[in-house]
Each structure stands twice: as structure tokens, then as C-alpha cells.
Design brief:
Length: 317
């Protein structure tokens, strides 16, 4: 079992313990309270816990899940309970309430308002607790204005904390979400294909265009390709174009994936990957992601399934 703190998984502050007879024991010195993150190896889910006591008891379970045909395994680590940490109890009580809300029959708008009101009461009661910015930093269902208002209620003593930095990151993401709104003009780009030719998205004006962000190492991306290939074959002779944008850093792996997946539609690569201008503009932090554009280059839909895309295209063509 490995334990690192506040997202610093690349630093050499990760400590570990061998699991013997279903138990692990980790000892060290840290400033408390602090967010600890548990995982089992490089292919394990990461679980957050809060440590605020010299003795904290964590109960976990794990199971192995096969993610693809190559038997790529993932340790499905889950934390069942944490004893000895009042801070963590605050976190788990709120998350339990939120889980019940998500399962309720309330509309999305009702859930958003209930969520906002609950967080408002929580942060007002615990402005100096790290759990307040932790919960707010995960509140991506709320609007920019709501998150901004709630963030102003957090005590300034937490301004340099990992949790408040996550709130700032969420605000940045929500602010950039306006670029993805239906009817907004897509940010054009010029990138090179596998032959070194420049492809400018402006050249697709006058046609409906699907922009697909993917990477060779992304299993869900590759799983979508057969459906996207069928979509391309069905509509390639009509006013419909498709452009794949790879966020790979290794060109050879990208070109190999193109051949293996038989991607006959336009393919380009951004060598800067997630740090490229287009990924940063749209705050793309994971793939797959896609944008369906109208003939004028305005957004018709975002992150649609191949079936949803075909449903829209059928009505337009």
C-alpha cells in the first residue's frame, strides 16, 4: 500500500507498507490535518483520506478488473471506513449525502440548487476546515458564479493550501466552459497530419465537421473508433467531415494506432498534447473528447457518442 500527500505523486514523499495478513502499517511525521492518498500500484484507483490524528485506522477492500482484451488489470481500491479522523468524517458524511442526492428523482436544476445550499451551510459552519475547499473543488455541477461566491466564504488562512488551489482550478474550468456552449464559434487550429501537411479547420467550412480528440494509449478512445469509422463511411460522401486530433507525445505510437484502427478520416497531431493551445483553450484534461460543428464552424454538440452524432447528422443532411 502506498501513501502520498496532497497530489504530490511525482515527488519522493510517497511512503509504503507491505500488506501482511490483510493489514498494512504506515508511520511518519506530517503537518495535520492533511489529505492523504492511498493506492496499491501504478494501475490502482486512488482513494482520498484525511489524517488529523496520530492514530488513524483505514479499512479497505480491493478487486481486480480487466479493462480490455489484453487483460490490462486495474486494482479497484475502495476505502470502506476511516476511524480516528474527525476531518475525514466530515468529508464522508457530506459525500454520503451527495450520493443520495444524485440517486434522487430531483431534476438537474433542483439537484444543483440543493447542492449549492448544502455547501453554503457547510462552508459557513466550517470556513477554516480543509474539507470546505476540498468539497467545493469537486463541485463541478455548480455554476461559475456559485463556486465563486462559495469560495469567498473560505477562510484566508487556507489560501495557499492544496484544496484552495483545486478550487481555483475548478473556477478556471467552469470559466472556460463558456467556450464549449452550443452556438459558440469553435477555436480554429492548424496542425500537421502524418505526412507533415498542415490541416486548417477553416478548410471545412460549408460542411458539418466532427473534431475528435484522442490518444493511442487511451483505451476508451480506441474502443470508440469502430463506431466512428462506420459513421465516416456512411456520411463521407455527404456534407460531413471528421478530424482526429491526437494528444500523443510519441508520433510513432500515433501512426501505428492509425493503421491498426484503420482510421481513414483526417488525422492530425498536437505534439504539445494536453499543454497545446487547443487543449488548454477547451480545458481538455482527458480523452476522448469531441466537438460537432455546423457549416459555419459553430458548436452543435460536445462529447457526443457516435450514436448521438449520427442522430444529429441524419436530421441535418
Amino acid at each position: 500500500m502506498y501513501l502520498f500527500f496532497e497530489g504530490n505523486f511525482r515527488q519522493k514523499d510517497s511512503i509504503s507498507s507491505e500488506i501482511k495478513n490483510g493489514k498494512f502499517y504506515i508511520k511518519g511525521k506530517i503537518p495535520m490535518p492533511i489529505q492523504g492518498r492511498l493506492h496499491m500500484d501504478q494501475r490502482s484507483l486512488i482513494e482520498d483520506i484525511y489524517i488529523d490524528n496520530s492514530k488513524t485506522y483505514v479499512k479497505c477492500i480491493t478487486r481486480i478488473s480487466n479493462r480490455d482484451s489484453e487483460k490490462d488489470t486495474l486494482n479497484m481500491l475502495s476505502v470502506i471506513s476511516v476511524r480516528g479522523s474527525n476531518t475525514d468524517q466530515l468529508k464522508r458524511d457530506f459525500e454520503s449525502w451527495l450520493n443520495a442526492l444524485n440517486k434522487s428523482r430531483a431534476s438537474d436544476e433542483e439537484k444543483r440548487e440543493i447542492y449549492y445550499q448544502k455547501l453554503f451551510v457547510f462552508i459557513k459552519k466550517y470556513p477554516k476546515s480543509k474539507i470546505s475547499p476540498y468539497l467545493l473543488g469537486n463541485a463541478d455541477l455548480l455554476s461559475y458564479a456559485q463556486v465563486k461566491e462559495l469560495s469567498s466564504m473560505i477562510d484566508t488562512s487556507l489560501n495557499n493550501s492544496f484544496e484552495v488551489n483545486n478550487v481555483a482550478s475548478l473556477l478556471n474550468t467552469l470559466d472556460k466552459s463558456k467556450y464549449k456552449a452550443i452556438g459558440v464559434a469553435f477555436q480554429d487550429f492548424i496542425l500537421k497530419d502524418s505526412s507533415g501537411n498542415e490541416i486548417d479547420t477553416k478548410q471545412f467550412r460549408g460542411k458539418y465537421t466532427l473534431i475528435v480528440f484522442w490518444a493511442s494509449w487511451c483505451v476508451p478512445c480506441r474502443a470508440e473508433h469502430p463506431g466512428l469509422n462506420l459513421l465516416y463511411e456512411d456520411y463521407k460522401d455527404k456534407a460531413f467531415k471528421m478530424v482526429g486530433v491526437s494528444l500523443d507525445k510519441e508520433k510513432q505510437k500515433w501512426t501505428k494506432a492509425i493503421m491498426k484502427d484503420q482510421l481513414n478520416w483526417t488525422q492530425v497531431i498536437d505534439p504539445n498534447a494536453f499543454e497545446g493551445k487547443i487543449a488548454l483553450h477547451y480545458d481538455i484534461e482527458s480523452v476522448p473528447a469531441n466537438f460537432l460543428l455546423d457549416k459555419e464552424g459553430k458548436i452543435l454538440g460536445v462529447n457526443l457518442t457516435p450514436k448521438e452524432i449520427e442522430g444529429i447528422i441524419k436530421k441535418l443532411l
